[in-house]
Design goal:
The protein is of the alpha/beta class. 34% of the residues lie in helices and 21% in strands. The longest helix is centred in the middle third of the chain and has 14 residues.
Length: 142
């Protein structure tokens, strides 16, 4: 996943089935999963109860730099928050954007969502930075 290799140190005696299962669960998903009709089922079945959505235009010239920072922030919350990319150019994602009561002119934006109780918050952005993503996530988790 993410063209990266992750190893679980097996030298300690305290490695058990629960730790192995957690390691696999944390590393089986990409740091950032693109939300679309194909991935939607897997996203909904994720064991993570918090989802952070980056609602953005993948065709924007800023997209590669934006994604680089978003992935870096995702590393900080691995195993706690599922980071998702929502491309606003996909017709099927229009419902996601409207759920958070956003207009295209307000994007890019971050939307964090707590799955069990539908609690959510939205932050419109001029620019995605690791610090802003981190602050937004920490505030919501508290």
């Amino acid at each position: 996943v993410d063209s990266d290799r992750r190893d679980l140190g097996m030298s300690s005696r305290d490695v058990d089935a629960e730790k192995i299962a957690r390691f696999v669960r944390m590393n089986e998903l990409r740091l950032v999963t693109e939300y679309n009709p194909v991935t939607a089922v897997g996203v909904m079945q994720s064991s993570l109860q918090f989802n952070l959505l980056l609602l953005t235009d993948k065709m924007s010239p800023e997209h590669p730099r934006r994604m680089h920072r978003y992935r870096a922030a995702a590393e900080l919350f691995k195993g706690k928050i599922l980071f998702l990319l929502v491309d606003i150019n996909l017709k099927s994602n229009e419902r996601v954007v409207s759920y958070f009561k956003l207009k295209r002119s307000q994007l890019p934006a971050l939307a964090i969502f707590h799955v069990p109780d539908d609690e959510h918050d939205v932050l419109t952005l001029d620019e995605v930075s690791i610090e802003r993503v981190q602050d937004f996530c920490n505030r919501f988790l508290q």
